[in-house]
Amino acid sequence: MTDNALDETVVDAALTTGWLGRSYHYVAQIGSTNDQMKAWLAEGRVLPAGTVLLTDYQSAGRGRLDRRWEAPPGTSLLFSVLFRPGWPAEKSGWLTMLAGLAVAEAIEAVTGLDARLKWPNDIMLRQNDGWAKTAGMLLDSTIDPAGSLESVILGIGLNVNIPAEALPEAMTPATSLLVAGGQPVDRRLLLVACLERLERYYQAADQGAAPWAAWNERLITLGRAVVVSAAGAAEVVGVAETTDELGRLIVRDAEGRHHVVAAGDVTLRGN
Ligand code: BT5
After folding, report:
1. How many angstroms from the chain centroid is the CA of residue 177?
2. Dist. CA 159–CA 211, nearest whole Å
3. Mean pLDDT for each consecutive 10-residue tract of the chain (271 residues)?
4. Residue 61 in contact with ligand 1 by CB distance below 6 A
5. The pLDDT value given to residue 28
6. 118 lines ligand 1 (CB under 6 A)
7. Is residue 62 in contact with ligand 1, taking CB distance under 6 Å?
8. Is the CB of 64 under 6 A from ligand 1?
9. What is d(CA 65, CA 75) in angstroms, rounded to the nearest whole number?
10. Which residue has its alpha carbon closest to ligand 1 atom 30?
11. For residue 128, how many C-alpha atoms fall within 13 Å in the half-sphere facing its CB?
12. Alpha helices per DSSP H over the chain
C-alpha cells in the first residue's frame, strides 16, 4: 500500500468539510505546528477559523507541560487547527472533549479499531490486557478581556504508521494504528475523516450541544485508581468517579472527600 502525500492539492481535493481545513497549509518539516500557528497569529497574519497547518516532521513537537512529542518523519498525522469560539473561557474543556471524540470516531471509521479516551487528552487503543496511547492533544488558548475564548489552537499528534521499534519510550505505553491493527493506514483518508468529524462536533457544540455524554462514555479512566499531580499543589490519590459537564475529573480520596480536577496543568498516573 502506498501512503498519500498530504500537500495542499491532494488534501483539498479529498476534503469533505464546509469550512474546516479549507484554509490548509502543508510544510514538510517544522519546529512545532502549534508554535508556528501561534507565531502567525502574533504577526497579525489573517487566518480564518478552521485553518489547518500540517507537517510531516516536527523537530520540536510539544506535549503538555513542556514535554516533547516525538514522531519519525512521514509516519503520523501532526497538525494544528485554529478555532475562534468566543465561548466563555470555562468551556475550553469542550474543545478537548469534541476533539477527542472526533479523532476516536475517525480512527474507528477508518481502521475498525476500538479507540477510547484517557482523561484528559489521550486517545488509547487496546494493547495486551491494558491500553496504549496512539494520539495526544495540546490546546493553546487565548482569552479576551471579556473572558471569552478568543482563539484556540488545537494540536493533534496521531501515531499512524510508526513501526513498533520506532515508538517512543513513555510512561504511558505508546502504540500506533499500524502496530495495533497490523496494517498500514492511509493517512489522507484518516485526516479527512478527522477534519469532517471535528467540524461536525464543533458546530454542534457551538450551537450549545454539549459533547460531554458521548465523551464521558469513552473514558477508560473512570472507576480507576489515579494519582493527580499539578504544579505547586499536593498530590491527590483516589478513585476517578466521574466527570462534570466542563470535562473536569471528580476524584474521591481515601477519606471520601471529592476533588474536582481541571485539566491544563495536571498529570495523571495510572490508566
Ligand atoms: C500530549 O501531551 O499528548 C499532546 C501531544 C500533542 C502533539 C501535537 S503534534 C501537532 C501539535 N504541535 C505540537 O507541537 N504539538 C501538537 P502529553 O500528554 O504531555 O504527552 C507527552 C508525553 O507523551 C511525552 O512526555 C512522552 O512520554 C509521550 N510521547 C511522546 N511522543 C509520543 C508519541 N508519538 N506517542 C505516544 N506517546 C508519546
Report:
1. 15
2. 24
3. 76 96 97 98 96 98 94 98 96 96 98 96 94 96 96 98 97 96 97 98 96 96 88 84 94 94 71 53
4. yes
5. 96
6. no
7. yes
8. yes
9. 24
10. 69
11. 5
12. 8-14, 33-42, 92-111, 177-181, 187-206, 212-217
* Alpha-carbon dihedral 186, 189, 192, 195, rounded to 10 degrees: -60
Q: Residue 90 has which C-alpha cell? A: 470555562
Alpha helices in 23-165 (DSSP H): 33-42, 92-111
Q: Are strands 52-55 and 24-27 parallel, antiparallel or unpaired?
A: parallel
Distance CA 220, CA 271 (A): 7
What is the predicted pLDDT for the residue at 235? 86
Q: What region does 4 belong to: left with phi over 0, alpha with psi -120 to 50, or beta?
A: beta
Q: Does any ligand 1 atom lie closer than 6 A to the CB of residue 173?
A: no
C-alpha cell at 190: 484518516
The response to whether residue 157 sits with its C-beta less than 6 Å from ligand 1 reads yes
**Strand (E) or helix (H) holding 136:** strand 130-143
Q: Which three cell numbers stand for residue 100?
A: 477527542
Cell numbers given for 44: 497579525
Residue 158 Cα to ligand 1 middle (Å): 9
Span from the CA of 96 to the centroid of ligand 1 (angstroms): 15
Q: Which amino acid is at 183?
A: Q
Residue 156's CB is within 10 A of a number of other CB atoms, namely 27
Cβ atoms 30, 61 nearer than 8 A:
no
DSSP, collapsed to helix, strand or coil, labels residue 42 as helix
Q: Which three cell numbers stand for residue 180?
A: 495495533
Q: CA 36 → CA 9, 58, 75, 79, 180, distances in Å? A: 21, 11, 20, 11, 31
Q: Are 147 and 53 in contact (CB under 8 A)?
A: no
**159, 119, 157: which is closest to 138 by C-alpha?**
157
Measure 118 CA to ligand 1 centroid, in angstroms. Answer: 13
